[in-house]
Design brief:
The chain is an alpha/beta fold. It has a single domain, classed as Methylglyoxal synthase-like domain (Rossmann fold, 3-Layer(aba) Sandwich), CATH 3.40.50. The chain has seven helices and five strands, in the order E-H-H-E-H-E-H-E-H-E-H-H. It has a five-stranded parallel β-sheet, with helices on both faces. Helix 1 packs parallel to helix 3. The longest helix is centred in the last third of the chain and has 13 residues. The radius of gyration is 14 Å and the shape is globular. It starts with a strand and ends with a helix.
Length: 132
Amino acid sequence: MNIALIAHDAKKLDMAEWAEYNKLTLSKHTIYATGTTGEVVNRATGIPIIRLKSGPLGGDQQIGALIAEGQVDVLIFFWDPMDTHPHDPDVKALLRLAVLYDIPTACNKRTADYLISSLMWNREEKKEETSG
């Protein structure tokens, strides 16, 4: 599977902790991440990360493009609901694409835990086969 990881600044520690705890599972998949998030996760886990640009510099849009191209299976996006961001329109567009393309999305640690522990996680089915 291809997994996209994004975390706003106030949530990067949460992402690093979550990734470290789930290191074994994550290491079996291809991981994409926005710039600093990728660096933080790589430092915490040692897992190879395909790093894109920082979110404010277009990384959110790059992840969105990967979703639109069918290159992302799961989105883990720890966003900060208590802060405004100059790239909020990009964040909204990214979340819109995730919903549009039926990408399982977690916006906090608990939901990410549910996703990664789901019985569906290790199924080899293609998205088209699971779509109604």
